[in-house]
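Amino Acid Chain and Its Fold in Token Form
===========================================
What this section holds: a protein sequence and its matching fold, both as plain text.
Structure line: whole-number tokens from a learned vocabulary of local backbone shapes, matched to residues.
Purpose: to set a sequence beside its fold so the mapping can be learned.
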Amino acid sequence: MVGLLLSLITLSVSVVSAACTAAPGVGTVALEAAMAARLLLGRLAGVASRPEWHRQCGRALAAQPCAVPEVEDRRAGRDNGHARPRWVDALGDVRSDWTREEVGEVFASPLLELVFKAQTVHRMYHDPRMVQRCTLLNIKSGGCPEDCKYCSQSSKWSKDVDMKAEKLMDLDSVLEAAQRAKAAGSTRFCMGAAWRGPSQVGPRQWERVLKMVKEVKAMGMEVCTTLGMVTPEQARQLKEAGLTAYNHNLDTSPEYYSKITTTRKYEDRLNTLEAVREAGIGMCAGGIIGLGEGIHDRVGLLHQLASLPVHPDSVPINRLVAIKGTPMQDEKLVDSLDLVRCIATARIVMPRSMVRLAAGRLKLSLADQGMCFMAGANSIFSGDQLLTTPNNDKSEDDVMFQVLGLMEKPYNPPKDALHRDVRMHGKQHHQASTVQ
């Protein structure tokens, strides 16, 4: 019965749509009513996708003249009587020629308009209900020689934070943790070591890490590591071991970076990303908000990421968790809507990337997290512990997935060429490059 009604109403939609096209302004109300009825019955019949009839109806409605000047301005490519910015007309194009001014314009958009545009772009490339679960394991904690002021693993203030340096985990313990993560629904397993880089450790530890990568990959999971700065040769070895992605966050803008750490330079971070990219490994690169930076620094970070020759495969957006004993222990918690704004901007300027709602999620309400997903986030860290800070446990995330209607993104072996051509322009590429 529902199928018959669907067919009849679909036919009526086509007739009314044709009438609207032949005589603009006529039949709009009827068309809207037919669309609403068709959508309701479609849901009753289990129709989950957006079929051709719906796209046709949308185009027919969009063609109707509007008495509201602001709407007509938008349709004519104007914004309050002025020509619209390039990024608005090219919304959804994958490009690496973003200017800092453009990224600033995106970032400064009215929040709800920004989220709407971000969700529009998100749906061009991603299933809006699919969210990837990732698990992060600290395989070697404490004793890091770097002086990142937000990090409790730095040896510079280990006494203040009561953090002792530990040895690299053994292979079996890591594999057991990976098995538990997979059973809990994670499709990416990330391993972090508190090193300046593999060059500071002996060959036996490095070989153990390569073995970890190989064995976890054999389980049918994406494998990510964050091990500090790597050389081109080390990146090549990680690639041969089967590494999916390498995490190396830029943290903040180039201008503010020296306020965060003094033991390495911004260029060092970029060189590691280049080594990873040249080895054919996916880049996982994002940053942290709440470090005392200004708005221009958040814009600078996002511009730096979006103007890389190849966009990162995944972009973790972290909200600082201030840890007692670190130099940033007194930094105030960033408002959740500031996080939403950063995520939405990241989604617009890097359309195909996975945008990960990372550290700092524990203190977000369910509604806050829902806004982050609306803004284009489609990945989370699952499990009650990150590197050194607590995280939402699986049961809480299960409730969130159910309430928000989210689904776990299944494991799909990544394709090496997925993000190679970021200079593509034009929406004719959207369907071909959609990540499933």
